[in-house]
Specification:
The chain is α+β, with helices and mostly antiparallel strands and about 375 residues long. The chain has a single domain, classed as B-lactam Antibiotic, Isopenicillin N Synthase, Chain (Jelly Rolls), CATH 2.60.120.330. Helices cover about 25% and strands about 20% of the residues. It has eight helices and 14 strands. The strands form three sheets. The protein has an eight-stranded mixed beta sheet. The protein has a four-stranded antiparallel beta sheet with strand order 6-11-8-9, with no helix packed on it. A two-stranded antiparallel sheet has the order 13-14. Helix 3 packs across helix 5. The N and C termini lie far apart (about 45 Å). The relative contact order is 0.15.
Amino acid sequence: MSATSFDRAAELRALDATYAGVRGLVASGVTHVPLIFRVPDQHHEPPQDDIVFANQEPAAIPVIDLACADHAAIVAAVRRAAEEWGFFEVMGHGVPEVAMTAAMDAVRAFHETDGGEGSDKAGLYSREPARAVKYHCNFDLYQSPVANWRDTLYLRMAPNQPEADDLPDSCRNVLFEYAHQMKNLGNTLLELLSEALGLKPSHLADIECNQAQVLLCHYYPPCPQPELAIGTSRHSDGGFLTILLQDEIGGLQIFKGEQWVDVTPTPGAFIVNIGDLLQLISNDGFRSVEHRVLAKNIAPRVSIANFFGTHIDPTSTRIYSPIKELLSDKKLPLYRETLASDYIKHYYSIGLDAKTAISHYQL
């Protein structure tokens, strides 16, 4: 198809109408990346970004053992990681390995079930914001400048848990249990982050930073031309805190020190990262860092991202601004206050790309 005859909007609608997502393209035997997935030239990083100079070890995100007996040392490690990296890895987290494995297997099984019109999977395909359980290809398909090589099962697990029958049969019980495990781990991490800010352990929970819980169960099919596509575009997360479980395929990178740093998969570990709203209320004490996922052609990649935020209710009057206990004459607020619902609406309206939603709220 020539560039002059390419109708992007029509191609996006055509992909959506298959109800089969990117996996459907791969299953159909596609050998070239369609134009809607082609990464624009300006999105390619300069070659020097990938250079590791002689005698220089590749950077790696901090690893924190939550089972360490020295609580003060854990809090200090969390503080350093949240301030300097915005990302860290946790071990000794208490989540049973069987729950982690079962969740990944269930997500993989769901995505590898045949889709298309008339299938059970197609019945879940939706872009309706109010729907608590849905499956789709790219949440921002019509906003983002480039479609991502990724399909997603979306589950809003709190504050109002969906009906059991709303979840796919293949992963219903498994993902309810996984969400319960993530809620417990999230509560532990928010207590540590509260202490790391010099606040009482319950502070972040008290202001409802964990009221909403969403699971995004991603599936990245093998890409025939991975150099031309992107798994997930460069972005920062919009909520307060993200806990990610990824398989062994890899591809996740964070942007630090003007270069992309690989987040190497570690069996049994979770990746934790700070979201925009936590950067805002911590007054830049903690960092929400841009990251991306590269497309791969070796095998499908599966990940489960657990997002904690505040309940997005259009009638909500919950306002967030830099925490007053963190401010002084020498530490003035860096951000204006915002309704949580307004922030998330703005975040979703711009789609995933190199823009950061938080800059819109800087003073």
